[in-house]
Design goal:
Layout: E1 37-41, H1 47-57, H2 60-66, H3 75-90, E2 98-105, E3 111-118, H4 133-136, H5 139-143, H6 147-153, H7 159-177, E4 183-190, H8 199-213, E5 220-223, H9 229-234, E6 238-239, E7 244-247, H10 260-280
Parallel strand pairs: 4-5
Antiparallel strand pairs: 1-2, 2-3, 3-4, 5-7, 6-7
The protein binds coenzyme A (COA).
The site of coenzyme A has 27 residues, from strand 4, helix 8 and helix 9.
Length: 281
């Protein structure tokens, strides 16, 4: 069983690919409390809300490669199709190792965060979001979908985006783990108004805590957006390649730039000055 260790306070990654944007440590004054947020498993009834969140949380530049603007139907149709594509992965009977976990505002019941974790024991390495997953997991027959229905729900997407890229990522993951049991994350998102308030941490810990309970600890794996890498490094994920990261128990993982420690100290000092000023005003 793994012991929790100290974490790096500030992690900076190169942001040339993200227009200067990267995640920042959560400001304690904005953090949502356990009374304000609850974490629970999704059901099939959440499919449309998850689909809406996907279109809201991931940037237009990312969607352009997955669903080219010239192929897109009206937004409501995109949501309906996405929700339908997600349904088999949300059915425990069809996908017992896939866990969609949501963060919900206690006051309103609104979904404000989501993670999908695929747990150890999944039959083979095959991302449930890929178009090829329909055939790989036999979902067409199990869902009773006709060929036309399957074609319709994928008709506006880029094959390279939903098969090519995901397939290559699966191949890389196979190279890392072979048959070794592991947790796989895809996707993680917090609704924009609630980012930087501790939701992502809760959704990550849902699987990290389980992974660290085993002896030896179970590895966790993901492909990260460049802007989100500090979040994962903060939780002990170690970069393997340009996108993929693995966590094998708690670890202190620092930034990718030599001067990150100095910048971290400057950042901490600025935060202290801001907090002092707020106290004075
Ligand atoms: C990435 C994303 C999911 C993070 O979710 P979030 O709810 O904003 O994250 P949190 O506020 O819980 O922060 C996560 C943790 O990372 C820490 N963190 C964030 N940036 C950090 C940095 N630069 N250095 C050190 N720690 C950092 C936070 O302090 C927090 O840890 P703590 O709870 O121990 O303090 C969210 O920004 C998002 O949805 N982005 C758009 C979609 C996306 O890019 N998803 C990821 C694809 S791989």
């Amino acid at each position: 069983m793994a012991q929790q260790k100290e974490k790096a306070p500030f992690i900076k990654v190169p942001t040339d690919k993200t227009g200067g944007f990267q995640t920042m440590p959560t400001d304690s004054s904005r953090r949502l409390s356990d009374k304000q947020v609850r974490i629970e498993l999704c059901t099939e009834a959440d499919a449309e809300e998850i689909a809406e969140g996907l279109y809201l949380c991931f940037p237009p530049s990312w969607w352009a490669t997955k669903e080219p603007p010239e192929l897109r139907p009206p937004h409501t149709t995109r949501i309906r199709r996405m929700a339908k594509r997600l349904t088999p992965a949300l059915r425990p009977a069809l996908s017992p190792h896939t866990h969609f976990v949501k963060a919900v505002l206690v006051a309103t019941g609104e979904m404000v965060g989501l993670v999908c974790w695929t747990g150890p024991g999944n039959p083979g390495i095959h991302c449930a979001l890929a178009r090829s997953a329909v055939a790989y997991y036999g979902w067409q027959a199990k869902m009773g979908w006709s060929d036309e229905e399957v074609a319709e729900m994928w008709s506006h997407v880029s094959d390279e985006g939903w098969n090519g890229v995901i397939g290559k990522n699966d191949e890389v993951r196979r190279g890392v783990f072979g048959a070794e049991p592991h947790w796989f994350l895809a996707p993680l998102m917090t609704w924009p108004d609630y980012q930087g308030r501790g939701i992502g941490s809760r959704l990550l810990k849902w699987a990290i805590d389980q992974a660290d309970q085993t002896d030896p600890v179970t590895p966790l794996y993901l492909e990260s957006a460049p802007s989100a890498r500090p979040v994962y490094m903060h939780y002990g994920f170690v970069p393997l390649g340009e996108y993929n990261m693995v966590r094998r128990g708690p670890a202190i993982v620092r930034g990718l730039e030599a001067d990150e420690e100095k910048e971290g100290q400057e950042w901490a000092q600025e935060r202290k000055v801001d907090a002092d000023e707020e106290r004075v005003n």
